[in-house]
Amino acid sequence: MFAALADATRLRLLRRLSSEGSLSITRLSEGEDVTRQAITRHLYALGDAGLVRHKRKGREQIWDLDMKRLEKARQYLDHVAAQWDAAAARLKAFVEDGEA
Amino acid sequence: MTAMATEAQKSTDRIEKHFEVRAPRSKVWRAISDSQQFGAWFGVRVEGPFVEGTTVKGFITHKDYEHFKLDFQIGKMEAERYFSYRWHPYPSDPNYDYSKDPRTLVEFTLEDVPGGTAVTIVESGFDKIPLARRIDAFRNNEGGWNGQVKNLTKYVA
Q1: Nearest alpha carbon to residue B103 among B74, B68, B62
Q2: Would you give per-residue pLDDT tens digits along chain A (100 residues)?
Q3: Is 0.90 topped by the overall pTM?
Q4: Which residues of A are less than 8 Å from B11 in CB distance?
Q5: ipTM for this model
Q6: Is A94 close to B41, i.e. CB distance below 8 A?
């Protein structure tokens, strides 16, 4: 799971889902050197990491990005940035008013 | 969708803060490089001095964050100019072993400016932090991020 994003194939799958929207495993396997089974394994690994999800459409499995969770990951950075803003304000107050 | 992916690629890896303080560089240097002074403004109890190449533990002193265990892996200390360390950002889950996870790099750079010191803080390497970790950080905050930020603002004010 920790390596979910490290693999080049997985990154490529995420990029395709990001730019093309929902895709079937057949479509996602096109142009890849590895087998359809391998692509399926990668997709499930991404699914375990909460990045993608799938639904069934007829006999096909359709995959798409789990935007809600991706959005949360982006907000995480905003949150950490807000903490640095607060820390910077405290540092400023400390050196300007503090004794040190 | 494409726009989001592009934005994610260019802006998710680092946070940069640049600001000026009305204090001499030597004083700002002490505030960031002396672990006790650092702890005072950052809000962390640091167990030991910051020394190049060592790892020092710390505990957040604010009550909502007391379960955050920090460890500072001290990088470079160039007197009155540059200080860096690596840590695990936002270690919100006390039951998770962060030790195998990649760390982010935090860098402080000081420069003279008329009337004081310019401080640049950069934290980078977020792209290597497992997405699952970042998402977990939310799960443990029932009030959500906004509530947490409000808390912090109140604490600072």
Answers
A1: B74
A2: 334 555 678 878 888 887 888 999 999 998 888 889 999 998 998 887 777 899 988 888 999 888 777 777 777 888 888 889 989 999 999 999 855 4
A3: no
A4: 77
A5: 0.79
A6: yes
